[in-house]
Design goal:
Two copies of one chain form a homodimer. Chain A has 164 residues and is an alpha/beta fold. The first copy, chain A, has one domain: 2-Layer Sandwich (Nucleotidyltransferase, domain 5), CATH 3.30.420.10. Chain A is 45% helix and 24% strand. Chain A has helices at residues 41-59, 75-94, 104-112, 119-129, 139-153; strands at 2-7, 12-21, 24-34, 63-67, 98-102, 161-163. The longest helix of chain A is centred in the middle third of the chain and has 20 residues, at 75-94. Chain A binds chain B through residues 41-43, 45-46, 49, 69, 71, 75, 78-87, 89-90, 92-94, 99, and chain B through 41-43, 45-46, 49, 69, 71, 75, 78-87, 89-90, 92-94, 99.
């Protein structure tokens, strides 16, 4: 099971690749994709697709893990998030990957044991689990790791051993 | 200029192909794509993409015309509309097509002369312009024709002659 966790955004998209093998979980890589705000949206959507298709092929991804979005104050941002999620759905179908979705509360609960945890608490816990993980300036990356961890854990609760 | 007008939906997507040549506008075809509600969303998003890529190639589309969506009562439907729009943005960039967008008010105003027109009034006007157009059971098709007409008209107001 090779899980791609994504926290998509039209500027920054965090992602993480986790491998689950027997009772172990390995964090293969994590990073973020930056899309220029100078570029028109169709170009960014296309770049997002190309980039994640490359990642899916490179790491032989089997599952995509996502957080269910909620409508915030800005309906346009919510719609744009839809553009990127649509691309991930398209790629999942094209490459026969499973899509797993978790609510923000489920992700926080799985990682920190508390559904109302802050972004910092999630990030802190992710760093505790993977001590060799570099500090990213953006939460998107640790969020993506947390989202992919949820998918790795969801089949059964493993007494997992971690390898950064 | 060959315009693809789309009124996307996860069940029914109306579309229309208009050709603008000098001062004439020709309605090449219009129809709708039906996606089974039994199928999971990634499969429908993929089918939507395949179908519209086929249409873009078949009719040598140069422009895609869309209506700007508004957030209705159902935020989940709004998000799903984002999935399909994301695919159209992706296809536009992939095939180097221009995207033109109009608000619902602009579409109604262009077609009926009244920005607050009903769906029936828009449909009635479209049928007046293209008398040989068959009656579709769904408004999505005449909506798509109206959306593509907006794009055909937007460069300058043509004294257009119509050919159904």
């Amino acid at each position: 099971m090779i899980i791609l966790g994504v926290d998509p955004g039209t500027r920054f998209s965090g992602y993480s690749i986790l491998k689950r093998e027997k009772s172990s979980i390995y964090l293969i890589t994590c990073d973020f994709l930056r899309l220029s705000s100078q570029k028109p949206l169709p170009e960014r959507v296309f770049e997002f697709c190309e980039n994640f298709e490359h990642i899916i092929n490179k790491y032989e991804v089997t599952d995509i893990s996502l957080e269910t979005p909620f409508l915030g104050k800005n309906a346009q941002n919510f719609l744009k998030l839809g553009y990127l999620r649509g691309i991930l759905y398209f790629l999942a179908q094209k490459h026969k990957l499973k899509i797993l979705e978790f609510t923000p509360r489920e992700v926080k609960l799985a990682i920190t044991g508390f559904g109302g945890a802050s972004k910092d608490q999630v990030s802190g816990m992710v760093h505790k689990m993977f001590p060799r993980l570099p500090i990213f300036k953006r939460d998107d990356v640790t969020d993506a790791v947390a989202i992919s961890l949820c998918a790795a854990w969801q089949i059964k609760n493993l007494a997992a051993s971690y390898e950064g």
